[in-house]
C-alpha cells in the first residue's frame, strides 16, 4: 500500500506508479483513479507529485496539454496542407494536359497548312511544265512520242 511510504522520501513513494506524493504533509497516498485529477481535499495540485518528484502535478498537466495540443495542431495542419497540395497538383496537371493538347492541335493544323501550301506550289510547278494531269478527266490517253 502507498500509505506505508508516508513520512519517507518522494522517490521511494513514486517508485510505485499508483502512488501520489503530497509535499504539504509529506504523505504518500493511493492515486484517486475514480477521478481524473486528484481533488484539492487530498492535496493541492501545485504540491502533488506523480510519476516524477521534480515536477508538480499542475505543471505536468499543463505540459501534457501543451504537447497534446501541438500534436493535434500539427496533424491538422499536415492534413490541410496535403489536401490543398493534392488538389492544387491535380488542377495543375489538368491545366498542363489541356495546354499540351492545345499545342498538339496547333502543330497539327500548322502541319496541314504547310502540306496544303506545298501541294499548291508543286501543282503550280507541274502546271508550268505541263506535268499536271487534267483534274476533270483523270483517265487521259497515254501518249508515246
UniProtKB/TrEMBL annotation:
The keyword Calcium does not apply. One of its GO terms (biological process) is protein import into nucleus. The keyword Membrane applies. Keywords: Coiled coil, Membrane, Transmembrane, Transmembrane helix. GO terms for cellular component: cytoplasm; nucleus. Residues 86-122 form a coiled coil. The chain crosses the membrane at residues 59-84. InterPro entries: PTTG1IP. This is PTTG protein.
Amino acid at each position: 500500500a502507498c500509505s506505508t511510504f508516508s513520512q519517507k522520501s518522494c522517490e521511494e513513494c513514486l517508485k510505485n506508479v499508483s502512488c501520489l506524493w503530497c509535499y504539504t504533509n509529506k504523505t504518500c497516498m493511493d492515486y484517486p483513479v475514480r477521478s481524473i485529477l486528484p481533488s484539492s481535499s487530498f492535496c493541492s495540485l501545485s504540491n502533488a507529485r506523480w510519476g516524477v518528484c521534480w515536477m508538480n502535478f499542475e505543471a505536468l498537466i499543463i505540459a501534457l496539454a501543451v504537447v497534446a495540443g501541438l500534436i493535434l495542431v500539427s496533424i491538422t495542419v499536415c492534413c490541410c496542407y496535403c489536401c490543398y497540395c493534392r488538389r492544387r497538383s491535380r488542377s495543375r496537371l489538368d491545366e498542363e494536359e489541356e495546354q499540351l493538347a492545345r499545342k498538339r492541335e496547333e502543330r497539327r493544323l500548322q502541319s496541314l497548312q504547310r502540306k496544303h501550301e506545298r501541294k499548291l506550289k508543286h501543282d503550280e510547278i507541274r502546271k508550268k511544265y505541263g506535268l499536271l494531269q487534267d483534274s476533270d478527266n483523270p483517265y487521259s490517253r497515254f501518249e508515246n512520242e
